[in-house]
Amino acid sequence: MSPRSWGVSETGEALESRLLNERFYGAGLRFCLERVGSLEGKRVLEIGCGTGDLSALLASRGARVVGIDLCEAHLARARLQSARLGVADTCEFIHGNAEDFPLSDRSLDVVISKSTLQYMDRGRVLERCIRALAPDGALALNENLPGNPFIRVSRGLRSARARLGRDVDYARSIRGYLSPEEIRWLGGRFVRVEHREAHLARVLVSPRRTFPASRFGRRVDVAAEHLDDAILARVPRASAWAWLTGLVAQGPLHASSPSPVDRGAQFANCIGRAPNH
Ligand SMILES: C[S@@+](CC[C@H](N)C(=O)[O-])C[C@H]1O[C@@H](n2cnc3c(N)ncnc32)[C@H](O)[C@@H]1O
Q1: Would 276 be classed as within a structural domain?
Q2: Which residues make Cβ contacts (< 8 Å) with residue 89, sequence separation at least 6?
Q3: What is the CATH number of the domain that holds 59?
Q4: How large is the angle between the packed helices 26-36 and 12-20, nearest 10 degrees?
Q5: Closest ligand 1 atom number to CA of residue 25
Q6: For 75-113, how does the pLDDT look when each residue is reduced to its tens digit (9 = 90+)?
Q7: How many domains does the chain have?
Q8: Residues contacting ligand 1 via CB (< 6 Å)
Q9: Which listed residue, 22, 152, 220, 248, has the most CB atoms within 10 A of its CB?
């Protein structure tokens, strides 16, 4: 989570702009919100809501939101922010585990998650979310994927650090990333699943802090983003090397089937892949 997420002095407009234009997650989040459509009066659950930025944004768009998270410190910040933005009445934050938090069947219009599934038993959490969705409900995921080769190197380095005794908690917390096979499984559990992947080489040419701070760095970053999007639009198989996805699954089919464990499959056969622009 970026340190800026800890700030609670933003206006609602600034929060919206920050989230939707965030360099890496922004594109997937815009995709999810466009596909979900109007949030007015909708019952929304955000799993792993962290400091509640996204929950507050959804509440400011008219949703009645419950955000759950394991971290009390994050939730305290989330409550403070929602109060300051004037959405505390429609934005509740609860300490809970997405794996066993009590949920009534068919009681939610939207379940949303941003960069959380890698910390959870995804099969269990997704199954519970599907059961909790109303028949015309939507699952919206803005999540990390396993296949980007550059990100894999970075993840490998973090694992190596953990073996040396550093960053151990982080390394232990990761339970694997949303796989192409799991996305296909979701395709069989919903009437319609659309997803759009992002970020191939962009993650390499624009290191996080230094390069984009300059005007030249910003230009390189934008060019890399356009190049990645063009490749993803023209070569569907390149999705297997993307870092992030925005996915919206609509119309849950309520008979269950076991979630997959095969992490080696590719995106090529995914249903309903939305064109990248
Ligand atoms: C990388 S942060 C993302 C937070 C927020 N979604 C965002 O995008 O700013 C992951 C969050 O998931 C929460 N988390 C991890 N495992 C969880 C679980 N089993 N149930 C609920 N929250 C969980 C963590 O406490 C953390 O706040």
Answers
A1: no
A2: none
A3: 3.40.50.150
A4: 110
A5: 8
A6: 999 999 999 999 999 999 999 999 999 999 999 999 999
A7: 1
A8: 1, 5, 47-50, 53, 68-71, 74, 97-99, 114-116, 119-120
A9: 248
